[in-house]
Design goal:
The protein has 153 residues and is α/β, with parallel strands linked by helices. Helices cover 27% and strands 28% of the residues. A seven-stranded mixed sheet has the order 1-7-6-2-5-4-3. A hairpin with a 4-residue loop joins strand 6 and strand 7. The radius of gyration is 14 Å and the shape is globular.
């Protein structure tokens, strides 16, 4: 199942994040985010965290590769695999632990770790168009299908 949405600015990206959270995003296990540099992947993650009620600073994990967030009832791992030199590096980072328990794992640049990540519940592809972002949401599991069915557009 797929849905395509659009955002012209950060406020509209925040609105999309709120819709995803309302539809049940926090119940998913893995959400992958794709798109070229500067497309808005980290911005969307930041807005998702805000929509869930996170009040602290949201750092891009471009250099650390992983940023964990524990707040309220949520356990969220934000990964940015852009700087991964070898897909096997993810093995040394303890990636199997990321998918245990009730964690939401948000992964930017998942294509850098082929064969290591499970199928995503939701894949988000962000493309820059002339004056807006096109956000393609594609479910990969039944949980992802349910989220897209619940999504209020």
């Amino acid at each position: 199942m797929e849905k395509t949405l659009y955002a012209k600015n950060e406020a509209e990206m925040a609105s999309l994040a709120k819709k995803l959270v309302t539809a049940g995003l926090a119940k998913l296990g893995l959400v992958t985010l794709g798109g070229m540099l500067g497309a808005g992947k980290t911005t969307l993650v930041k807005e998702i965290l805000r929509a869930l009620g996170y009040q602290g600073a949201v750092k891009s994990p471009t250099f650390t590769l992983a940023e964990p967030y524990q707040f309220g009832q949520y356990s969220i791992m934000h990964l940015d695999l852009y700087r991964l030199e070898d897909p096997q590096e993810i093995e040394f980072m303890g990636y199997r632990d990321w998918f245990s328990g009730n964690k939401l794992v948000l992964v930017e640049w998942p294509e850098k770790a082929p064969g290591f990540l499970p199928d995503p519940d939701l894949n988000v592809m962000i493309q820059i168009q002339e004056n807006r972002r096109q956000i393609l949401l594609e479910s990969g599991t039944n949980a992802g299908n349910l989220l897209l069915e619940q999504l209020i557009t």
